[in-house]
Amino acid sequence: MSPEAANKLPYTREDLVSGQEVRWCPGCGDYSILATMQRTLAKFDLPKEKYVFISGIGCSSRFPYYMNTYGFHSIHGRAPTIATGLRCVNPELSIWVITGDGDGLSIGGNHLMHSMRRNINFNILLVNNQIYGLTKGQYSPTSPIGKITKSTPQGSIDYPINALCIAIASEATFIARTLDSIPAHMGSVLERAMKHKGVSFVEIYQNCNIFNDKAYEPITGREARDDRMVLLEHGKPLVFGKGRSKAIRLKGLRLEAVDYKEGMDTKELLIHNEQDPEPTYAYLLTQMEYPEMPVPFGIFREIVKPTYDEMLNMQVQEAIKKRGKGDLKELIYGTDTWTVK
């Protein structure tokens, strides 16, 4: 760390604001995500030059321009690939992949899945507004069935992808969901993701007020959220509703909502365990969907597992010990060559 950087820490949010003009539509949920990210990173004792934001294509992928850090606005769906290479050569960086439901779950789905499977030590934020915003309103992989858009004038017949199910199936070691309209909740989730060692996957419900306005209003709107959102707290029952009058219990292999009163016996209720080594419980939570059930927000899963980049560097160091550092010219002009006439 340079003496100048050391003297500057800790940062304020303003220190992480770039000089670029922010070019999102007025009222876009991305403004809240950007501001929350800047406030969150200002809490950590890490110099700005140690942060890297890598994005693909989409509205949210303009993120690197607006962070006063290093960044890379890459090509469609390939941000996890570039982040993988960067992580493997520089273990000191804090790397954030910014993607969307179109960029990350469509053309980039394969790259996203394998970065989580490998447990590479970086953070993935998937901004989910259930629409293609940058290209002006086509349906996306997370758009609900029946959604009428410019590319589905008679309604979508695609079954939507559940982003958290992809993360669980890929064995991501940190899985969470938050939303743009409650910055305090989003900030706490981002802070936990920053501290996690391994891949973190955070889905953010975001409102596109131009092409898919109020898509999440039935769940996250001020009048509805008490009854239709449940906030996950490790070691506590899943309680929700006005006056905390409802809770979740496990009946067989299904979850159901039951009446709840403060002080009642919680033996029959579902107690949240984000540290469960088996992914089954986290998967059950992803099946809680509106309108049948309240939608969960918070940390679904956090477990500890060796990271790909650590194991790769261990292999490299072991190979150097056994065979030396090697010589690039010798490798290129070695014995395994041939001449074509």
Structural overview:
The chain is α/β, with parallel strands linked by helices and 341 residues long. It has a domain at 3-215: Thiamin diphosphate (ThDP)-binding fold, Pyr/PP domains (Rossmann fold, 3-Layer(aba) Sandwich). The chain has helices spanning 3-8, 30-41, 63-66, 79-89, 101-107, 109-117, 163-169, 183-195, 217-220, 225-228, 280-286, 308-323, 328-332; strands spanning 51-55, 70-73, 94-100, 123-128, 174-179, 200-205, 229-231, 239-240, 246-251, 254-259, 295-302. Helix 8 links the parallel strand 5 (174-179) and strand 6.
Corresponding CATH architecture of the domain at 3-215: 3-Layer(aba) Sandwich
SS-derived structural category? alpha/beta
Task: List the strand order in the largest sheet.
Answer: 2-1-3-4-6-5-11-7
Helix-residue proportion? 25-40%
Can you identify the CATH superfamily of the domain at 3-215? Thiamin diphosphate (ThDP)-binding fold, Pyr/PP domains
Please tell me what the overall shape is: globular
Tally of helical runs: 13
Highest-level CATH class of the domain at 3-215 = Alpha Beta
Strand content bin: 15-25%
First-residue to last-residue Cα separation: 55 Å
Mean pLDDT: 94
Largest sheet: 8 strands, mixed
* Number of E strands: 11
Order of helices and strands: HHEHEHEHHEHEHEHHEEEEHEHH
Low-confidence region ranges = none
- From the alpha carbons, calculate the radius of gyration and give it in angstroms: 22 Å
